[in-house]
Amino acid sequence: MLTLTDLKFKCKQAMSKQPSTNEEESVCVLWQNEWVRILTVRDSDILDKWRIEVEVSLPSQDDPQSEEDIKNFIQNLIKYLEYLLRLDNEGLTLSVISRDGLWIAHTDIEDLPPDSLLKALIPP
Q1: Dihedral (CA of 90, 92, 95, 98) sign
Q2: Which of 62, 105, 122, 123 could crosslink 92 through cysteines, CB 3.0-4.6 Å?
Q3: 33-70 burial: b if 16+ Cβ within 10 Å, else e
Q4: Domain residue spans in the chain?
Q5: Interatomic CA distance for residues 40 and 15, integer angstroms
Q6: Strands (E), 1-124
Q7: Considering the entire predicted model, what is its pTM?
Q8: What percent of the chain has pLDDT over 70?
Q9: How many Cβ atoms sit within 10 Å of the Cβ of residue 121?
Q10: Rounded-to-integer distance, Cα 2 and Cα 66, Å
């Protein structure tokens, strides 16, 4: 499980890394599970700004074996869609990348995000 302390530490690490001049952007995965991937992205030509991206996608799974499996999947889907709405409430921009189930929330940041934003980034 991701904690606020872990996320803050990983953000500080990502911010301290400088992209090489040969790369267009530097991407660091802060955390991921089957539903969510939290990234930092920094363009090599704009070193004073970076972006936090949260990707939420439907996990690959076997065919549901029972009604219980289907219910659990739907309940998890609702939790993660509510998570996206929580990110929207914190000021992140939402985007639909794929109708098959890939959603993105992102925001540009110049410094370490406040604890309120970091708490919002912690997935269900």
Answers
A1: negative
A2: 105
A3: eebbbbbbbbeeeeeeebbbbbbbbbeeeeeeeeeeee
A4: 4-121
A5: 8
A6: 25-32, 36-43, 50-57, 93-98, 102-109
A7: 0.87
A8: 88
A9: 24
A10: 30
Q: Which of 52-56, 64-68, 82-86, 89-93 has the lowest mean pLDDT?
A: 64-68
CATH number of 4-121: 3.90.1150
Q: How confident is the model at residue 88 (pLDDT cuts 50, 70, 90)?
A: very high
* Span 58-86, pLDDT tens digits: 887 777 678 998 899 889 999 999 999 99
| Tokens describing residue 9 | 């530490």
Task: Tell me the residue length of the chain.
Answer: 124
Burial grade of 94 (CB within 10 A; 0-12, 13-18, 19 or more): middle
3-state secondary structure of 100: coil
Burial of 15 (0-12, 13-18, 19+ CB in 10 A): middle
Q: How many CB atoms lie within 10 A of CB 31?
A: 17
